[in-house]
Write a structure and sequence with these properties.
Mean pLDDT: 92
Strand content: 5-15%
CATH topology: Rossmann fold
Number of strands: 7
Low-confidence stretches: 261-266
Largest sheet: 7 strands, mixed
Strand order of the largest sheet: 3-4-2-5-1-6-7
Helix content: 25-40%
Radius of gyration: 17 Å
Bound molecules: adenosine-5'-diphosphate, magnesium ion
Order of helices and strands: EHEHHHEEHHEHEHEHHHH
Distance between the termini: 18 Å
Structural class: alpha/beta
CATH class: Alpha Beta
CATH superfamily: P-loop containing nucleotide triphosphate hydrolases
């Protein structure tokens, strides 16, 4: 049974999609069966895996509004990871779902039928706290939070934390924090180190030891439709995401989704 991990932070441009694409690919490279769901209408995870957005005629949108089943939305890729793609059509789903039954748990229900086929299902959330992200956070066992090392990173973090609290209370009591990863890291700036210190104070052991450096290769890989471990297997970026994948997999051994844990065993 797959553990479902949402990659979320309502701030845009912090490296959610980059982390979603490259972490899922590196986890797959470690031999884990991996699916990634693009929950962002921008569809950058979709193109990051080399799938043209216009070719997604059955994707996350159809899943959410109940027009398709997960097995029909899954696309195989040459990168070991399967993808459920999206495009701008998904932007309409938020409004359309409002009147549908169980509007916040539609992704969870849709993924249930394929959960047995994977070790991990990653969900790349949009930069918002709307009904799409709510579906991501209700579907998942844990949330992985990328944080960009800049001053404004801390703004919005408290909002995210209070959203997670609300979701635990109302919808998904077992929602866990998978981990916090620093992205676009350049350790030589004082400010970066201050941000790291403050985040560590708050999240403690949840902060990954691996940090993702800022590199040109990481930013250009999506335009070639390839995860970094295929685009530049021996580069710094690939090395960092492989390290993160190793840490991620290690943290999940023995792997048992939080939702199925019995009381007192968490
Ligand atoms: P989000 O999904 O949170 O909006 P993205 O993953 O799309 O953020 O990243 C925002 C921008 O930063 C993109 O242009 C991406 O290529 C770039 N970027 C992300 N991580 C890195 C990195 N480690 N090094 C260089 N550029 C990066
Ligand atoms: Mg994104």
């Amino acid at each position: 049974m797959a553990k479902i991990v949402a990659i979320a932070n309502q701030k845009g441009g912090v490296g959610k999609t980059t982390t979603a694409v490259n972490l899922s690919s590196c986890v797959a490279a470690l031999g884990k069966k991996t699916l990634i769901v693009d929950l962002d209408p921008q569809g950058n995870t979709t193109t990051g895996y080399g799938i043209p957005k216009r070719s997604v005629d059955v994707g996350t949108y159809e899943l959410l509004i109940g027009e398709a089943e997960a097995k029909d939305a899954i696309r195989k890729t040459e990168f070991r990871t399967d993808v459920i793609g999206s495009n701008t059509r998904l932007a309409g789903a938020g409004l359309e779902m409002i009147d549908l039954p169980g509007r916040e748990s539609r992704l969870r229900k849709a993924l249930a039928s394929v959960q047995k086929d994977y070790d991990f299902i990653f969900v790349d959330c949009p930069p918002s706290l709307d009904l799409l992200t709510l579906n991501g956070l209700c579907a998942c066992d844990s949330v992985l939070i990328p944080i960009q090392c800049e001053y404004y990173a801390l703004e919005g973090l408290s909002e995210l934390i209070s959203t997670l609290k609300t979701i635990r209370k109302k919808y998904n009591p077992y929602l866990d924090i998978e981990g916090v990863v620093f992205t676009m890291f350049s350790g030589r700036f004082n400010l970066t180190l201050q941000v790291v210190d403050q985040v560590k104070k708050y999240f403690g052991a949840k902060v990954y030891k691996t940090t993702i450096p800022r590199t040109i290769r990481i930013s250009e890989a999506p335009s070639y439709g390839q995860p970094i471990n295929f685009y530049e297997p021996k580069g710094k970026g690939s090395e960092a995401y492989m390290d993160l994948a190793i840490e991620f997999v290690k943290n999940n051994r023995p792997h048992e989704p939080a939702r199925r844990r019995t009381k007192g065993n968490s």
